[in-house]
Automatic annotation (TrEMBL):
Its main location: membrane. This is non-specific serine/threonine protein kinase. Pfam families: GUB_WAK_bind, PK_Tyr_Ser-Thr, WAK_assoc. ATP binds at K351. It comes from Quercus suber (Cork oak).
Amino acid sequence: MDLQNLSMSPKPSLICIFFIIFTSLVNYILSLDPKFQACVPYTCGDGPNINYPFWILHEQEPFCGNPNFTIICKDKNPVLTIANDDYIIKDIFYSNQSFLVANAMVYEDTCPAPLHNVSLGQTPFNFSLYNGDFSIFYNCGSKPYYPVYELDCASNSTHHSFAVFHKEALELHNYSLKSCRSLVDVPVDVGVNFTSLLLMNYTEVLKMGFSLNWSAQDCSSCERSSGRCGFENNEFVCFCHDRPHLKTCNDGAGACLVMVLIILGVIFLIHRRRLKKKYDPSILLSRSISYDPSGTTDQERESSYFGVHLFTYNELEEATNNFDSAKELGDGGFGTVYYGILRDGRQVAVKRLYEHNCKRVEQFMNEVEILTRLRHPNLVSLYGCTSRTSRELLLVYEYIPNGTVADHLHGDLAKPGALPFPTRMKIAVETATALAYLHASDIIHRDVKTNNILLDNNFLVKVADFGLSRLFPTDVTHVSTAPQGTPGYVDPEYHECYQLTEKSDVFSFGVVLIELISSMPAVDISRHRHEINLSNMAMNKIQNHTLHELVDTSLGFESDCTVKNMITDVAELAFQCLQYVKEMRPSMAEVLEALKDIQHRDYVKDKEEINISADDVVLLKSDPIPLSPDSALNWNISTSTTSNGSR
Ligand SMILES: *[C@@H]1O[C@H](CO)[C@@H](O)[C@H](O)[C@H]1NC(C)=O
Ligand SMILES: *[C@@H]1O[C@H](CO)[C@@H](O)[C@H](O)[C@H]1NC(C)=O
Ligand SMILES: *[C@@H]1O[C@H](CO)[C@@H](O)[C@H](O)[C@H]1NC(C)=O
Ligand SMILES: *[C@@H]1O[C@H](CO)[C@@H](O)[C@H](O)[C@H]1NC(C)=O
Ligand SMILES: *[C@@H]1O[C@H](CO)[C@@H](O)[C@H](O)[C@H]1NC(C)=O
Ligand SMILES: *[C@@H]1O[C@H](CO)[C@@H](O)[C@H](O)[C@H]1NC(C)=O
């Protein structure tokens, strides 16, 4: 509207305005600093914007960046050389001075096998906290049973190469790393959802890259004053459109005015021409106004504490519809669990802890950090929690949609024949895998029960509620609020020394095994006095050769010979787990191995001949398993010790 007034003003003033605009324009163009022009941001192919302190060799002038940040464009990729290794820069975050790189080898070799550790030595770079410890082991004497990323391309029949997150787990598992010729640590950015990392293969994991942060003089004040940062005489300089300046372009306002004048002038000229042609100028005007020179807007910052995502209380209150009791998923040992949907659409299970003791909060974050780092396909992922300043401690877990094993065995979701024996076997193996992983990470679950074994839509096991006891360590004054296990599953030795060990988890898992073959709940007061506890009932039946009274008839125990043999073996394993004296129980690792053996054994063939293949070390070391329950008492599943292996 103002423009229309302008266009109606008398001619002499028009000419005057035009003259001012023209001279400013000429002035601006003539006075442009060549260094300012040279340091325009650049990209290699589709890569990120390369800007100070980075600069591109051959494409830009050395004064545009710090010599430690020299990038070379190779095949449209920005490549940074650190300690003689090439890394492709995948992304640069100027706002928090960090960037994501991946070893260039990963993109070039069919079998990427970095042979030395990433050395940051004298560089201005540092590893950011978002990286997880990923280690590659080359040429080891044996394969660990522990789940690892296989490196088939670098292995042969005698020398195995593999990679694993948290190598400590292997050592805790008594896997001797001494048998490996070399070990290379590779950080991997685990800022993404860790579960997706577990679904990847080795190369894909390496392609995730890792993040580094840098220290260099901050250039943001220069950029805010519409200058461009550069580097001269070992110093950061700010190039302005008309002259170099040390810190900022103070005349930024002046440059802005010139720009505004130019834009206005151009609009004005076009406007006049269009007016003559009777065009409506408003379209152009609105376009010019919507142009935002600052580019980006401040986004809501994601907060996190040492890699643990911190949710705000309000966010979770909103996600759970104000902790709507209709959305309650269950009542766990340490708190109530609610279903929720985060703003980003993720479905979550939010655990509201009963305990609000301030002292606990101190430990809380460290413990949550340990728990978030525990990643396994058979463990429910912990996404994060509320911050220590929040008014309540809430834990946010991945939501698992398909109920618990208890629901499917004897709860709301139970249907005759719905869980066939092979599925139950798979559940047993996956649960044992998760527990063995926890034990290898030095964590006792303390509350193993079918209510804590969740199933996803593909009946993949997700063990929940692990490690919460770490948040509330055994403490005499808190015995009542920190439950140690659930009736029916608790290690009988616990009542003698009030201490839970890994073998207590083994006992509870024994109860789970019996539930899987019997479909009966762990405790049922409608049963006979001596059989209220399923573990007692099972021990009696197995010892009295009446296993058939325990087994769920719908599984085919009487009709299918293979199923009968498998169930008998599982019952015998459970019998070992349920031993009163904990020293007599196998370790979780041994239980897992025995279960896998039962799952994969060819029972039909075994009858004719005990065929030992190279992989079946377990079979080789343990005696052929007798089918009669009589053997239960002395059947030894131990595979590592020879103490009583030779009968
Ligand atoms: C830096 O910011 C980016 C994007 O905002 C984020 O993805 C990244 O995790 C941050 N890195 C660090 C080390 O804070
Ligand atoms: C890499 O670092 C680890 C310790 O972090 C060390 O044990 C290993 O030998 C190193 N590997 C090489 C190839 O230097
Ligand atoms: C396996 O690889 C190792 C190391 O690369 C080599 O020393 C060994 O001879 C190979 N063995 C076989 C059977 O190929
Ligand atoms: C590892 O070996 C130690 C000592 O021999 C033993 O106490 C521990 O139970 C073993 N751990 C596993 C997971 O087998
Ligand atoms: C890993 O997965 C990618 C794509 O999913 C595939 O192209 C590649 O061949 C796989 N690599 C190996 C070593 O299996
Ligand atoms: C880079 O990250 C490390 C680890 O988080 C931190 O100690 C260091 O201060 C960071 N450096 C910069 C310049 O942000």
